[in-house]
Design brief:
Helix content is about 65%, strand content about 5%. By secondary structure, the chain is mainly α. It has two domains: about 60 residues, no CATH class; about 50 residues, no CATH class. It has a two-stranded antiparallel ribbon with strand order 1-2. Helix 3 crosses helix 4. The protein is elongated, with a radius of gyration of 22 Å.
Length: about 140
Amino acid sequence: MNIELSERQFQTLLETYYIGEYMKQAYGNSDDSKELAELGNILYEAAYNAGLDEDVEFDKQLGGYAPTAEFEAECDDIINTYDENNFWEELIIQLANRDAQAQGLDDMSSKEFQAAQQVLIDKYEKEFAENGVDNLFVNEE
C-alpha cells in the first residue's frame, strides 16, 4: 500500500501517531504495543528518509529511528494542554452533575435538565477560572 503525503501532512501523521501511541500506552491498557512499535518504526524511518530529520533521528543505542527531543517536546506540549483542559472540563461536569442530582434535577425533562446543568457548569467555570482549586475543599467527617 502506498500513500502520498505532503511534508506537512507527514508531520501531522507523525504527531498523531506519537500522541495516539502515548494515549494507548499511558496506563498499560494496550494489547497491541508490538504492532504500535512496528508502525512507529516504519513511520519514523520513512520520515527520516524523507528528510524530516528535525523530527526524527537515527538512535545508535536503539539501533533504529526515534523522534528527536524537540519533536517529543512539541507533542508533549499538545498532550499537556489536552490533559489540563480535560481535567478542568471533567471536574466541572462531575461537580455540576453531582449538584444536579443533589438538587433533584434528574426528574426534569432533558431540555430543562440541560438548562439547569448549564447554570451549574457556568458557576464552576467562573469559580475555577478566577480561583483555580484554591476554594475547593473536601469535608472531613
